[in-house]
Amino acid sequence: MMKPTIIAIAGPSASGKTLFAQTIHDELVDELGENGISILYEDAYYRDQSHLTMAEREQTNYDHPDAFEHQLLNKHLSSLVNNETINSPVYCYKTHTRTNETREFTPTKIILVEGILLLSNIELRDRFDIKVYMDTPLDICLIRRIKRDLIERSRSVESVTNQYLETVRPMYYQFIEPSKAWADIVITRGGKNRMAIEVLKAKIRQLSKLPPQH
Ligand SMILES: Nc1ncnc2c1ncn2[C@@H]1O[C@H](COP(=O)(O)OP(=O)(O)O)[C@@H](O)[C@H]1O
Ligand SMILES: O=c1ccn([C@@H]2O[C@H](COP(=O)(O)O)[C@@H](O)[C@H]2O)c(=O)[nH]1
């Protein structure tokens, strides 16, 4: 099999990274066939915190690069580029730690990697063939995050807004926003930007036919 092409989709929390990646995946998966396209999540590489109490886990700064095991993600990306299967961790937002399961992840021609701090880390950055940044305004992200986290991540409005003020917003300005400078493509208006989806799909179709120029 040809060497996988790795596409990073970075940007603030609730900017639409997951929706954008999932839409591209779902609209191309049949066309690209078996081993065509898959999504890997940076969030899966949040550190295991099973040794901490729930109260301690709630104090973690999840928007600082140290919250992630980026070294393991980097090692896994290296394996995938060499067409080796990996076992990605599986993270649970409700318990704030990894589960006992892993996800067997077989390399595909196109691998979309999605996460907040992918472009802030130099080793990771070097792994990506295309770097995309979702440039959704922070107030829109906050509204979407409140709605999503209440339904999907068992949070209260108070916990989301406290976390936003204490860590999410300051870490955005310290690490995420500056990492936009590394992006090849900056996308406005979030995960439903139809033209951006079509442009990425066209590039992916082209890359799926050609051996990548590494
Ligand atoms: N352009 C958009 N319009 C409306 N809702 C959106 C849009 N983009 C994303 N969302 C919604 O906002 C929430 C956060 O999006 P998500 O893709 O999970 O963001 P991220 O992966 O960046 O954290 C989700 O509920 C998603 O469906
Ligand atoms: O245990 C956890 C782990 C992460 N978070 C928050 O999640 C977002 C990143 O995920 P997105 O899907 O990009 O929103 C990050 O901002 C963390 O604050 C968490 O709250 N708890």
Can you characterise this structure?
This protein has 214 residues and is of the alpha/beta class. β3 (86-92) and β4 form a beta hairpin. The chain is 42% helix and 19% strand. The mean pLDDT is 96. It has 7 helices and 7 strands. The chain has helices at residues 17-32, 54-57, 70-81, 122-125, 138-152, 157-179, 194-209, and strands at 5-10, 37-41, 86-92, 97-105, 110-114, 130-134, 185-187. The strands form 2 sheets. A 5-stranded parallel beta sheet has the order 2-5-1-6-7, covered by helices on one side. Strands 3-4 form a two-stranded antiparallel ribbon. α1 (17-32) crosses α7 and α5 (138-152) crosses α6. It has one domain (5-207): P-loop containing nucleotide triphosphate hydrolases (Rossmann fold, 3-Layer(aba) Sandwich), CATH 3.40.50.300. It binds adenosine-5'-diphosphate and the ligand O=c1ccn([C@@H]2O[C@H](COP(=O)(O)O)[C@@H](O)[C@H]2O)c(=O)[nH]1. The site of adenosine-5'-diphosphate has 13 residues, from α1 and α5. Adenosine-5'-diphosphate binds next to α1 and α5.
**What is the CATH architecture descriptor?**
3-Layer(aba) Sandwich
CATH secondary-structure class: Alpha Beta
Classify the helix fraction into a percent range: 40-55%
β-sheet strand percentage: 15-25%
Strand line-up in the sheet with most strands? 2-5-1-6-7
In the residues, how many domains can be counted?
1
The biggest beta sheet reads:
5 strands, parallel
Please tell me what the overall shape is. Answer: globular
Structural class: alpha/beta
